[in-house]
Design goal:
Elements lengths: L3 E7 L8 E7 L11 E6 L9 E2 L14 H14 L10
Antiparallel strand pairs: 1-2, 2-3, 3-4
Bound molecules: calcium ion (2 copies).
C-alpha cells in the first residue's frame, strides 16, 4: 500500500507565519480534496522552526505506540519542507 502525503505551505491561522499542512491520502484518491485526514504544523515563534501540531498524530513510524517521536517526524518534515521556497510552477 502506498503512503501518500501532500504537503502545502499556507497561512492557516492568518497570522503572517506559514503553516505546513499534511494531507494524508488512502489507496485510491481521485482528487486533491479526497484526503483521509489532514493536520498542520505551526511555528510558535514564527521562525520556521515547527513545534506545534493542530491535531493528535497517528502512529506515524508504525512502532505500535503514539509518542513524541511520531510528532517529531511531522515537525521535522515541516522544518525541511518550508525551506522549499524555490519551487515554482513550471507550466
Ligand atoms: Ca500562521
Ligand atoms: Ca510510533
Amino acid at each position: 500500500m502506498p503512503i501518500r502525503i501532500l504537503l502545502e505551505i499556507a497561512d492557516m491561522e492568518r497570522d503572517g507565519s506559514p503553516e505546513v499542512v499534511f494531507y494524508h491520502y488512502g489507496d485510491n484518491p481521485t482528487e486533491m480534496m479526497d484526503y483521509d485526514y489532514a493536520l498542520f504544523a505551526s511555528s510558535s515563534q514564527a521562525n520556521d522552526r515547527y513545534d506545534l501540531l493542530s491535531e493528535e498524530v497517528i502512529d506515524s513510524d508504525g512502532d505500535g505506540d503514539i509518542d513524541n517521536h511520531d510528532k517529531r517526524l511531522y515537525l521535522q518534515l515541516a522544518d525541511a519542507f518550508v525551506q522549499f521556497r524555490g519551487l515554482k510552477s513550471t507550466r
